[in-house]
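At this stage, I put together a protein sequence along with its fold in token form, as given directly below:
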Amino acid sequence: MPRIGLESSVQRVVPHEWTIASFDPRLRPVLSTPAMIGMIEIAAAQAVQPELPAGAITVGTRIEVDHLKAVTEGATVRAARLVGYQGRFLVFDVEARSGDLVLSRGRVFRAIVDNRKFPTTANDK
């Protein structure tokens, strides 16, 4: 199992496609919750990837995130630290920030799977 305390960060400048205005032009061009969650998920996956067995990946199984603040298009956003295990699931404390502003925080749960078998098992369901 990966070591507790592994961390990763994803840093991206928010493009227009990640804002809620890209879905509805009447809305403000602020980072959407789905885009923010995507960044957090990538950070969590990257945190443990170097310590996984050959051929293994992690897949998201649960997300508990509060979206606290908004940032506009063009803002830089960083986002995961492995804090423990719950059965076979990895548990990450996650936070998205833009500078000192905390945009979101919460927990992400991921499972370790064999990437060679994953496409077949996913298609079978």
Remarks:
- The radius of gyration is 16 Å.
- Residues 33-48 form the longest helix (16 residues).
